[in-house]
Amino acid sequence: MKRLTTLMLLSLFSLGLTACHTVAGAGKDMQSAGETIEETAQDCRDADC
Q1: CA dist., res. 4 & res. 47, Å (int)
Q2: Which interval of the chain is the signal sequence (predicted)?
Q3: What pLDDT is stored for residue 22 in this prediction?
């Protein structure tokens, strides 16, 4: 029982770390897309569409 509990805790911990990296990567991708949209909007505002 003790070994099973330890394995379960280690599995949850490793999944938690993976999820954090995935969310961080998705956040960076969204930030990059937002910056591109912002630059395009600025160009259109300056009549360079």
Answers
A1: 65
A2: 1-19
A3: 78
